[in-house]
Design a protein that fits this description.
about 200 residues; Nuclear Transport Factor 2, Chain: A
Length: about 200
């Protein structure tokens, strides 16, 4: 299940998409994000590390890493000091960007992504939906959860068939905090020694 979530989420972010006439600005931004990052992934003159760094630089404008981190950690986040929060955000961000960029590079270009006409809006929060058809014939529904700040939408979560990508590690994070303390858990994330979430 974990690998399916990673592949589907990465594909949703990075694969070429078929778009109908999109009216909501959040849907338009999702399309622009996909197109821009896909150009980076397909650039044959870049090494894998260069692609990951360029994806990161672009994603920095649209991803709310603090909110992603807080949701991933859950309840223990309240116990983190400001310095511990910054350390975890940096480590989690590097792990997420590397993991999803590599997953996308392995198969995103071969998948078919279609932004669905439905959208859920609640105040300044918007869910934009897409459907992914993988080369193996599997189909996933992906919901991009965003909130509006000014004229821009920030991504704070992605759900693949209802499963949140930022909470797949939550149980492991809580367990690590209990066993190793906050600093020990951060070090485990920084060294990329997490077990694959089930």
């Amino acid at each position: 299940m974990y690998q399916q979530i990673v592949f589907a989420a990465a594909t949703a972010i990075l694969a070429p998409a078929a778009f109908a006439a999109l009216e909501h600005p959040a849907q338009q931004q999702v399309r622009q994000n996909i197109d821009t990052v896909l150009k980076i992934i397909k650039n044959q003159s870049l090494s894998e590390q260069q692609k990951i760094r360029q994806v990161e630089q672009y994603a920095n404008r649209f991803l709310d890493y603090e909110r992603l981190s807080a949701m991933a950690v859950g309840q223990p986040w309240r116990q983190f000091s400001p310095q511990q929060k910054q350390s975890f955000i940096a480590a989690f961000k590097e792990m997420v960007i590397g993991m999803y960029a590599r997953s996308a590079m392995m198969g995103a270009e071969k998948a078919d992504v279609r932004v669905l006409p439905k959208i859920t809006a609640n105040g300044n929060k918007v869910d934009v939906y897409s459907e992914i058809l993988t080369p193996s014939g599997k189909k996933y529904e992906v919901a991009y959860q965003l909130y509006q700040t000014g004229s821009q939408y920030k991504l704070y979560n992605i759900r693949v068939d209802g499963v949140s990508i930022v909470t797949v590690y939550r149980n492991q994070f809580v367990e690590l905090v209990n066993q190793q303390g906050i600093d020990g858990m951060i070090e485990t994330v920084r060294n990329k020694k997490l077990k694959k979430a089930g």
